[in-house]
Amino acid sequence: MTEGHIVGAAYLPGMPHLLAEGSDASPGWVELRRAVEEVGQRLAAAKPDVVLTLSTQWFTVLGHQVQLDPNPTGHHVDENWYDYDFGHLDYDLPMDVELATAWADEIDDAGLQARRTRYEGFPIDVGTIVARNLADPDSRLPGAQVSCNLYAPAEVMGQLASLGVRAAGAQGKRVALVVVSGLSAGLIQQWITPEQDHILSPDHDRWNRRVLDLLVQGRGSDVMAVREAWAREAVADSQGRGLAFLAGTGILDTPADLLAYAPVWGTGGAVLHWGLP
Predict the structure, then answer these.
(1) Mean pLDDT of 107-112
(2) What band does 24 get if pLDDT is binned at 50, 70 and 90?
(3) Left, alpha or beta for 66 (phi > 0: left; psi -120 to 50: alpha)?
């Protein structure tokens, strides 16, 4: 386990369908939503000072962007799902700028390149908004967030998480880590009704369940060993960079609690929680 005090971690889906209600929602979307809400309560009970977040929907290709806006707020309309109520999202995201700044400095000092981001109207990604709105609906927990560089190798993704935890430790802060990402990322390429939703491919489903089984057993090294094959065979979201991020802190060696697994428009969505002393 990396230096610093980690009180918990979570892997959460970020598709806006989790916000659908009534007949607009599938049973699987509702199950995932309730699981995210449950994880939010567990993380809050662990009393972290800050939530270190990576969302694979905030992706970059140059350097590693770190959010320095102290409180991004606004209204976001999803570019794909704007015809649905769940595609219209308000957000209010308190950030720990002191920690985010220190995290960026740690990234630079490690020989990587941090890009500090702060300007009005910055396009907050849907995954971050969905996860934060469900897990922390009253916006009580400050966050610190880094982007997901699409060209960063797994080792660098893990290093980013470790550097964030170390920066927090230097400030005497307890952290929770939250990754917003999916499993298999194959979307159903047509309009469906919620009850028609299913994992796009049986092979994708088998790969997702294999990875989830390893996570539940706390076999982090085995997860990373199959990551590339999972990415290739099941179109894993961001090639599994979300799990690589968590692996850098050693969390994946602790058995995860799997609260839900369900399709979201063909993709695989799962809610996992790691409780740590």
Answers:
(1) 98
(2) confident
(3) beta
3-state secondary structure of 165: helix
- The per-residue DSSP string of 199-260 comes to -S-HHHHHHHHHHHHHHHTT-HHHHHHHHHHHHHHH-BGGGGHHHHHHHTTTGGGSPPEEEE
- Bridge pairing between strands 174-180 and 114-117: unpaired
For the chain, the farthest-separated pair of C-alpha atoms sits apart, in whole angstroms, at 51
Q: Which helix (H) or strand (E) holds 89?
A: strand 88-92
Instruction: Name the region of 36 (left: φ>0; alpha: ψ -120 to 50; beta: rest).
Output: alpha
Specify the pLDDT at position 23.
Answer: 85
DSSP 17: G
| pTM of the complete model | 0.96
Long-range contacts made by residues 201-207, C-beta under 8 angstroms, separation at least 24? 201/234, 203/233, 203/234, 204/233, 204/234, 204/235, 204/268, 205/268, 207/183, 207/233, 207/234, 207/236
The pLDDT mean for the chain works out to 96
Q: Of all residues in the chain, what percent carry a pLDDT higher than 90? A: 95
Contacts with 111 (C-beta within 8 Å, 6 or more apart), sequence order? none
Are the C-beta atoms of 263 and 185 separated by less than 8 Å?
A: no
